[in-house]
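hey so i finaly got around to running the thing on Nodulation protein L from Photobacterium profundum. pasting the sequence first so u can double check i didnt mess up the copy paste, my clipboard has been acting weird all day
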Amino acid sequence: MNELEKMRSGLLYDGNDASIDTLRQQSELLIIQLRSSPSSQHQVLLKLLLGSLGDNSVIRMPFSCEFGKTIHIGSSTFLNAGIVMLDNADIYIGDNVLIGPSTQFFTPTHSLDHESRRRWESWCKPITVENDVWIGGNVSICQGVTIGARSVVAAGSVVTHDVPPDTLVGGTPAKVIRPINSSDAAI
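ok and heres what it spat out for the C-alpha cells, dont ask me to read them lol
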C-alpha cells in the first residue's frame, strides 16, 4: 500500500511522500487558476480539480482544498464562498446540498501525544454529507462525521459526531435541537 492509499484509508502516512506531494502541487496550481479566472471557466477547472462534480453544482470562490481528487460533490449542490476542505480522506457531498460561507471540513487529526505531533503524524477519516442537507455559515465538520439526509446544521456549529437524518443540530459541539418534520416551513 503506498502512502496516498494509507492516507485515504485512515492509516498513519508520510505526508511528504512524493506521490502525495505531487497531487498537492497539482491541486495548488488548479486553485491558483480558479481564483484568477472568470466564473465562466470555473466548471471546467473544478472538474479537473475534484474527484467528481455533479451537474448544476456551484462552488463560489474563494474555495480551498489540499488534494481535490478526494472530493466528490453531487448534483444541484451549492457551496458558498470561503469553503475550506482538508481532504486527506474522501469528502462526499450529496445532491441538493446547501453549504454556507466559511464552512470547514477537517478529515485529518493528530494525536494527543506530543511526541507523535512532533513527528507530524496524523490519520484521516472521511466525511459524508447526504442529500438535501443545509449547512449554515461558519460551521466546522470534523473527521469521520456523516450528516444524515435532509438535516440542518445551524450556523457557527462544530459537528463532532454523526447527525441523524431529518434533524436540526446546533452548538459547539453540535447537539440535536429537534427532529425536522415535513411540515416545517421555517426555522
